[in-house]
Structures are given as C-alpha cells and as structure tokens.
Amino acid sequence: MTPGQRAETRIAELGISDPQDIDIEAIAFDAGIQVEYENLIGCEATLVGFGSSAIATIKPSGGRGRERFSIAHELGHWDMHRGKSFQCRVDDPSNNLASDVKLEREADDFASHILIPSTLLTPIIKSFKLPSLKQIEEVADLFQTSTLATTIRLAKIDTLPVVMACYTGTKRRWHIAAPHTPKRWWLKEKLDEDSFAYDLLSRGTPCPAPRKQSADAWFDNDDAEEFEVLEQCYSPAQGQVLVILYLTDTEMFERGFDPSVGRRRY
Fold first, then answer.
1. CA torsion 213→215→218→224, rounded to 10°?
2. Of 145, 181, 211, 230, which has the highest C-beta tally within 10 A?
3. What are phi and psi of 225, to 5 degrees?
C-alpha cells in the first residue's frame, strides 16, 4: 500500500467519520506513541522507539495545525519506517516537496492523509466546486490543519482540474498537479510578470479568489495563448508565493502530446 492508503486504512479501522474526531494524539497513543512537547533546537520533531513503543517529541508551535502535522508525520515514520530514529523539520510540508528525501516525503504523505482523509475531504471539496482561498481556510479550520497542508491536498485528491506551484522569489520551488491533469502542459520555471502571483510577490497585490488569466502566463506551450485558466495565490511565507491554477477549459484536456516543451519521454 502507498503511505496515503495506509493512513486512510487506519482512519477506517478507527471508525472515524467526522473531521472533529481526528484526535491525532489519541491515534498516536493507540499506535504505541507517547507524545511530548519540548522546545527542540534544530528540528521540529523527534521520534525514538524501542519494541512496540515510541516517544515523539514535538516542538511547540504558534499554530495548532503545525503541531498536528508534526505528530502525524512522526506517526507515519513509526508506521512505515520502524526501527529508525528521526529528527525532522516538518513544520512546513512544502520543504519536503522540494526535497528528494524519500522517507520524509512518505511520512508527509501519510500525515496529510491521516489528518485530511479523502473520504471526508472529497464531498466537501465537491460542494465548493472550485474553492477560493477563504473556502480552503474554512476546510483547514475544520480539519485543524494549516492552510498550506490543506491546499496541497486539493491536488492530490484528484477531484479538481488543478495545478499548484510554489515560487521562491520568481523561481519555481516545486509543483504538483492532479493526476488526471494532462502532463503536456509545461509549467514555467519562472514567474511571468503578467501573472497575479508576480503582482503578489513584487507589489503585495492579493488574489484570494480565482480570477481569469491567460494560460500563456503559466505554461510554455506555444498554444497556451489560446486558453484561459483561473488563478489564485497567496503567500505562505516571506518571499514565497503559492499559486493555484484551475484548468477549466475542457479543450486543454483534449490537446495531444506537445513535442516542443518539456523533458519527459512519453
């Protein structure tokens, strides 16, 4: 099973059917983990285990969502990587999206699924259709998760025609897309000056709700100028911008392979 499948199986085994019932400390305790809080230096969480028991030490945070993600991250390590000890920087899930540390990415995937299970998230997102930032924040409050972690889950549940990316300065740090989104659309490495994300990063101009944008502001494909996308963005940290693109034009899903862009081999 994938890390996400393992987490969702655990939620089903516990009979959880409401986001308010996701008590991550209790779930960890049931798995043999004692959660403690301590002012750690150099990391946000540690996990030390022996036999069937472990201690997860979590650095107190100003955001409950971050603490819950840290606990769930260590629970993922305990479930999948037992026998190892970890010192983790898990306060910002985008750090691991931008890295190639397999075990950390697996623990993040487990954490996001156990905190925001697809079975509970999908019907909520479908009721919103194309969620605005305000609606995403409402979902984050419901699941007691950070806005960033909740935003990342939007793409991975694969119910929305969405592409998501994080830029530091004007350079792309990482990006993800819903699995059903065509890979032929090649996201730009640098922010286009015509994008709303560029305006947010350079001038502080907000774009909290989806707004129409020419697709050639975001994709390198020669035919991108024929289409429009919906763009919204926000700043998860100083000097960073996270953009959410909704591909609402069905013809973008019908275009064939584009040999003029990208490095993938089909």
1. -160
2. 145
3. -65, -10
pTM of the shown model: 0.87
Q: How many C-beta neighbours within 10 Å does residue 239 have?
A: 9
SS3 label, residue 104: helix
For residue 166, pLDDT over 90 is answered with yes
Decide if 100 contacts 49 (C-beta within 8 A): no
For residue 102, what pLDDT is reported? Answer: 85
Position 123 scores a pLDDT of: 94
The pair of structure tokens assigned to 167 is 């830029």
Q: Which of 96-100, 126-130, 224-228, 256-260 has the highest mean pLDDT?
A: 224-228
Are residues 112 and 4 in contact, defined by beta-carbon separation less than 8 angstroms?
yes
DSSP assignments along 178-229, one per residue: -TTS-TTS-B-SB--TTSHHHHHHHH---EEEEEEEEGGGTB--GGGGG-EE
Structure-token pair, residue 223: 């035919």
| CB distance 116 to 24 below 8 Å | no
Determine contact, residues 131/84, Cβ cutoff 8 Å: no
Of 84, 77, 142, residue with least CA distance to 111: 77
Give the residue carrying structure tokens 């970890």. 86
Segment 105-139, tens digit of pLDDT: 899 999 999 999 999 999 999 999 899 999 999 99
Torsion, Cα 257 259 263 266, to 10 degrees, reads 40
Q: How are beta strands 53-58 and 33-37 bridged, if at all?
A: parallel
**Dist. CA 238–CA 17, nearest whole Å:** 36
- H-run or E-run covering 234: strand 228-234
Neighbours of 265 (CB within 10 A): 4
